[in-house]
Amino acid sequence: YDELIVQESFWWICSNKCRFDTIKTKSSSLIWRPLPQGCTKFNVCGIANEEGAGVLRDMKGVARALFSGPISTNDADSAKAGTVFVALDLFLSMGSKINSYLIVETGSKMVYNWCLNKDMRPWSLQTAFSDIERKIELVGRIVFLMADQKGNEMASTLAVADINSGDMFKAWW
């Protein structure tokens, strides 16, 4: 099993001293490590009842933006894809054109595969992915990653906490 050695509550207090290294023991453990220079990362999460959330962190691990709320979809997979769109839209709204690249990390293997391979996308989501691709072009360089088992914990918590709120909440600083 994966064990988180550095608790997120400690990370908020002292993020510059937390690192993400894999330690080889009886079980592999994860610790937070800063992103490459000039990079920002959005952790996104969509859940079964069409809610979504995301957290944008800079290379120091400091949260710079978040969103949480309903994603207008018919099913959970569409909600998960919708979180990618909302993350890109929020990033562009911030005017944060960066010199390096944006990482979008999702906990859904299906959405990860859809983002990388157009042939795997369901016909019903072609319009949504056309919108996502337009946003990707505006962002510039972007990398999609598959989150570790507990890698999107904050985004998941935001999505669950926002169930039945009815409104999308977006904030950046």
From TrEMBL:
Species of provenance: Gossypium darwinii (Darwin's cotton)
Protein name: RNase H type-1 domain-containing protein
Top-level taxon: Eukaryota
